[in-house]
Write a structure and sequence with these properties.
The structure is a single chain. The chain has about 220 residues and is of the alpha/beta class. It has one domain: Barnase, Chain D. It is about 35% helix and about 15% strand. The chain is built from 7 helices and 4 strands. A 4-stranded parallel β-sheet has the order 1-4-3-2, with helices on both faces. Helix 4 packs parallel to helix 6. The radius of gyration is 22 Å and the shape is globular.
Amino acid sequence: MKRDLFLTTEKETEMERPLRPDVSETPLKGVRSNIVQSIRAFRVQDLQDTATRLGHHFLYANLATAQSKQDVLDMIAQQFTFPSHFGKNFDALYDCMTDPLHKSGPQPGFIVVLEHIPANGKFDKEAREQLLDIFRDTADYWADRKVPFRCFYSFSVARSAQAGKGGATEAVEGQAEPVAQAPVATDGEKMPTDKILDVSPLALRMSSPFNAGYWLAAA
């Protein structure tokens, strides 16, 4: 009788567990399990919803107001809820997202969004590549441990001054409309248009639902 009761309870518990969808049934269909890529057509809300459905951690950082490397690290640390001893450098960023988490227990997977990475003289092309390399190395780290880690990013850049001081252009009758030029960063670097999102006063603000307890428990 006790054994039958145990089996019944076990079946009820299994029925209560939410069924996780296959990745092919989500917007991430066709996206490698461990990758760092531009956000392109993905919407942040869709990525967050997908992380919830898959049972993955979701980490979000909006860097729209960052200007320098220190700003970027400070904002990532705050929005990813890093522990207070975070060293505020790229090596510490990598460390916080790898060994301590791995040692704190099994991890289901990660979906990371870095929006509006600055593209200016204080955070130039080299700094941007260093930042993305940290996340690429992190993706490789978790790939070795068979844990998905997908990171999506966008750049925040200054648009070419095509509109004049008024900020708008109007077509003049009898004249062809100006041809749009490729956006450029303030340091003169042409930026891929599929990696650009304009900064607006209505830029999405959301705190990462990532459980800070993982960082603190591993500290």
